[in-house]
Amino acid sequence: MMETPVAADIADDEPVQPADVLYEILLRVPAKPLCRFRAVCPSWRSLLCDPTFIAAHAARHPGPLIVVAMEETYKDVKIMDISGNVVKRLKSAQQCPTDIMWTHRDLVCLLGDDGHHRVLDPATGVTSFLPPRPIRAATQTTMYVVGWSAAAGKYKALTVGVTGGKQVCLVVTLGGDHGWGWRERGSPPAMVELSRGGKVAVVRGVAYFLTMFPKAMVDGFHDWIVAFDLEAEAWWPASIRSPMVPQDESSQEFYVNLVEVNGHLVASINKPGRSTRVVELWFFMDPHKPLWTKRYTITLPTAIHVYESFGKPLQVLEDGKIVVWIWKYHPKYCGVPRVYDPKTETFTDGAATRVRHAVGGVYTGSLLRIVGALV
């Protein structure tokens, strides 16, 4: 009988299973215990580090995994599933203001109390610092964005700051023999918001920014989004037309955030009211046309002595339900992942989590990966 690949190179005291059986069993195990199983024996480690197995495991466990910053230490970053189970806990070397945290693909980006932006790789636990802006371009008012460039096969960081009375964009390639140098790439076609939370989203190599004058949104169609192409390292010459705001709602106050959901740019339009709070989720379906589709209209439930506000959409599930993040105040401030069913217009709550200021977003990488993301 031919010896299986798993049994071929193991010692007499190592556990032996047919390769196909072991493969299928381990595919069903969550990532957290699998990381420990690498210590069982060399053959298990070889299998669990194999890129083919890691890809198959990621496909079997699509998530979502949510990245949150915790209030108890200011240094804890946790990756959890929608039931509130902590899959991995990470420590940041510096205390990080938890309202300045975001995710992109398999990275978590943070701003420390020391003023330095850093990138945390949850799979390896490695923290990398973004290089400082050039002195001539230094400014206190800046925004940093990290996005994946498929053409370069690397991550790029983008910063927009005020220099000489105008906004200027700088780009740097991260990882490997990058040459950690910032490259100036001009000014946006319209002044952009420089606050981090919900004002920018990176989708398929393009960074989308809200402009600084959101009041222009209330008269129906308006161009209040601008875009930077990370591949070409250039601003799109024209602004992007927004979702339509009905004329009968033009006098209402509402708030807009941008977020990436399932590979699409989404405009989350929050319309607070006295008795109800309604959130519309508009999906930007074609980057070459101003084509928006309103896929979800979510009414937050009201309850006595409980105040809730909408955080952000996180991920659309295969059955059309959507995972969103909700802030609750009862009696303490906390965050809760919630699954919304548009067919029944009902919610299913995950576990409430004590989060100080922010949920970073969805982690779409594999925690089994052993090679750094910024190689």
TrEMBL record:
InterPro entries: F-box-assoc_dom_typ3 (IPR013187), F-box-assoc_interact_dom (IPR017451), F-box-like_dom_sf (IPR036047), F-box_dom (IPR001810)
Residue ranges of every copy of the F-box domain listed in the record: 17-57
Superkingdom as given in the UniProt entry: Eukaryota
NCBIfam families: F_box_assoc_1
PANTHER family per the UniProt record, alphabetical: BNAA05G37150D PROTEIN-RELATED, OS07G0196600 PROTEIN
Protein name, as recorded: F-box domain-containing protein
